[in-house]
Structures are given as structure tokens and as C-alpha cells.
Amino acid sequence: MGEHIVTSFDQELGEIDRLIRRMSELAGQMISAATAALLGSDMAAAQRVISDDTLMDASQRDLDERVITLIAKRQPMAQDLRTVVGALRMAADLERIGDLAKNVAKRVGAVGEAASPRTLSHSIETMAQMVMEQLDETIEAYVGRRPDDLAALRAGDEKIDVKYTAIFRELLTYMMEDPRNITACTHLLFCAKNLERIGDHATNIAENGYFMITGQQLPLQRPKTDETVALRGA
Amino acid sequence: MGEHIVTSFDQELGEIDRLIRRMSELAGQMISAATAALLGSDMAAAQRVISDDTLMDASQRDLDERVITLIAKRQPMAQDLRTVVGALRMAADLERIGDLAKNVAKRVGAVGEAASPRTLSHSIETMAQMVMEQLDETIEAYVGRRPDDLAALRAGDEKIDVKYTAIFRELLTYMMEDPRNITACTHLLFCAKNLERIGDHATNIAENGYFMITGQQLPLQRPKTDETVALRGA
């Protein structure tokens, strides 16, 4: 009987994992499409990303409802409860990632076809790629129940932060060179910041996933730093 | 017996309310101190805000643990569960508000004693004040179980967004006037954006609190918009 309950619980947890993976796939598509729309000044593509965010919100509500039903039906004990509550947090991080991708899409019109140098476009594209890989690997490591990989993935976020700092400096330089660049570069600055925040949420997911699998907090939580907050001058 | 359980549940929910109010008070102090530190270039005060954030993180962990213990002990049914899960969300919003205030404090050094015009300082101070009132009134309406007030409070966030848009335009103007202002103004832009985000989190808290009290979603969720995403030129 106890065995049966545990199995059903695990099955339902597996169902929740599938929803998490689906949210993560949608988030990845949104990041990719928003970045492409930004760099190609594609307003129609940007609009599709903005619409996709409602799917993301609906997925989070689905997942929340499923978790609440699971708790009410199975009445899991403390450790299992922590795991299930962790799923709510993971869904919240994924929903927020969708929001951040949507925000990048919303800036496509304001950035316009500003003659952003090729090196800058390349930097933003690279950063978006890093962020998508980070998210994808994190979710796969969580769904595959590989806590050591989740612990190792935190190092990936540091590389994203370094990239963000480089882009931040680059953008300040363009603004100083020509004041006509200021508005577009300001929006690009927020876009880069959004990508950096997505990396932070992937780190949250890794730490949370580690806790859900092992019941332990990851030792020495890496501080989520934005090095640019201390940059004076460019 | 049923009566007794309900009463204990409500008592423990009251205990959770007290923790939420304490987190909100700390968040308000952090916003106030971070803004004062920013406008007065007070590095020591900024450092205290940064330290306070660890208290905020600890409070969230406390609250999460208390909620998990409450669920495990009382095994509440679906509607009560939704309320309790709502408390987890509220704590997450408050923790994030603390993070955003900390981020303002971290930028104090980078903004430096940039000769920011008096009108700009005044605008930022006013915006911080609006945000603090919004948060405080929201938490009081929630703790006082006044759902109509929570519904009404959403209008307050629109005023904050209007203020943010004005500050955004003002900052772009200073950058264009003198490129030497660019770095400091960029950091101030992120500070203003953080205040705007705090307003969004207060709105989340109002909507979530309304749901916790009434079991109903607020009709026609006000879209959390950042009007500046579409601003081309200043």
C-alpha cells in the first residue's frame, strides 16, 4: 500500500517534469525568436513572441493546479512536499524567463534598424546562445536527476555574466561616440540585462533542482552578481 | 473537532501574516535607505542595505519552512492549500523586492557624485516614495483582509509607470546633452527600472492577496506595462 502510494506520487511527479520540460522548450524558443527579431528588426516575429507569453502563463497555471491537486490528493510528508513546492518555484522561474524574452521582443520597435555594429550583434547573439544552452542543460540535468551536473552548471552562469559586462561596456562606448545612438543602445542595454537575468533564473532552477533531487542545499551558493553595477566610466 | 482544526489553521495563517508584514517592513526600509544612499552618494548606507538583504533571504526561508510545516501538519484541502501556496508567492515577491533595493544600493558607487540635476533627484525620490506607499498599503490591505482595497490598489501602479517613463525620458536627455553623463545616467536608468519593477511586484502581491482572501482571480488583470519599451528617441 505504502509502495503503491509512492509509485503514484512519483508518476505524478513525472507528469510535472514533462510540463516543466515543455515550459523550458517554449522559453528557449521565445529567447531565440526574440533575439532574432531584435537583430533583424522583425516586428512580426517580435509580435509572435509577445503572444507566446500567454501560452507560458497558461502553462504555469496548469502546473500550479496540478501541484495543488497532487498535494491535496497524496498529502505528501515534509521531504516530498519540499520537492513539490520546488516544482512551483521552477515553474515561476520559467514563467519569468518567458516574461524577460517577451520584454526583449517588445523593444524591437524602439531599437529599430539602428546601425548596430556587426560585432555588437554578434555579441548579443552569442550571449543569447549561451543563455539558451544554460537553460536547456539545466532542465535536462534536472529531469534526468543528475544533481552533480546541476552543481557544475553554475559555472556556466559566470561566463554569461562576463559576456554581459563586455556588452555593457561596448554599448556605453557607442553611446559616447555618437549621441544619436543613445536611445537604441539604452534599449539594447535592457535587452542584454534581460538575457543576463535569464541566466540568473537558470541558476535558480539548477539550485532548486539540486534541492528537489537531493534534499540538500548546494554548498556555497554562488552570488548572482552583475559586475556592471560597479563600473564607473566605460 | 473540525472547528478546532480550522481555528488552529487560521492561527497559523495569522502567524504567517505577521512574517509577511515583517518582510514588507524590511523591504520598505531597504527601498528608503537605498534611495537615500543613491541620492546622497552614501557608500556606508548602501553597504547596510546590501547586508540587510541576507535578513530578507533568511525571512523567506523561515516563512517557506513554516508554510511547509503547516501543510504537512494540517493537510489543508484544495482552497486552503491555494491560500497557503499564495503565501509562498507573496514571500517570493517580497524577497525579490529586497533584491531590487539591494541592486539600487550596489549602484551607489558607480553613479558617484554625478552632478545629477535637482529635478532628477526629486523625481527619483518621489518615485521611491510612491513605490513604498504602494507596497505598504498593499500589505496592510492584505493583512486586514480588504480585497476591494487590493483591487483598487492596481491603479496606483499606473502612476508609478507614468513616473518611470518621465524619468526615463529625462535621463536620455541628460545623456544626449553631455556624453560625460552617460555612465552615471545608465546606472540611474537601471535604478529607476528597479523601482518600477518593485511596483510590479506590489501589484503581484495585490492580485495574489485578492486571490488568497476571495478564492477568485481579480477580473481583467491589468497588464504590467513598461511604456518606455516603445520609446524611440527622447
Key structural traits:
homodimer; 234 residues; mainly alpha; 0% strand
Overall outline of chain A: elongated
Give me the oligomer status: homodimer
Query: Helical amount among residues of chain A, as a percent range?
Result: over 70%
Largest interface: A-B, 41 and 40 residues
How many β-strand runs of chain A?
Answer: 0
Strand content of chain A: under 5%
Query: What are the low-pLDDT stretches of chain A, counting only 5+ consecutive residues below 50?
Result: none
CA-CA gap between termini of chain A: 65 Å
Q: Number of DSSP helices of chain A?
A: 7
Instruction: Please tell me the overall pLDDT of chain A.
Output: 90
Largest β sheet strand count, sense and barrel closure of chain A:
none
What structural class do the secondary elements of chain A suggest?
mainly alpha
Description of the molecule:
The structure is a homodimer of 234-residue chains. With 234 residues, the first copy, chain A, is mainly α. In chain A, 83% of the residues lie in helices and 0% in strands. Chain A contains seven helices and no strands. In chain A, helix 5 (118-143) runs parallel beside helix 7. Chain A is elongated. At the A-B interface, helix 2, helix 3, helix 6 and helix 7 of A face helix 2, helix 3, helix 6 and helix 7 of B.
